[in-house]
Amino acid sequence: MLFIAPEERGKGLGKKLIRYGTENYSINEVAVNEQNPLARGFYEHMGFQVYKRTDCDEQGNPYPLLYMKLS
Asked: How far apart are CA 17 and CA 14, in angstroms?
């Protein structure tokens, strides 16, 4: 998961972290809380697309997740 403090958003930090992860660790999938449209929009802007949705998070809590894959 990637979290950027609200006051630091829009400065390119998220983009740099995504690039670092994809280039150095071959990360091409992420899980995003469906109730966080800003996160979904960010990942879509970075080239990720939803390929799966679950009603609960990975701990079984009622937080729907969107699984996104880099296209």
From this structure: 5
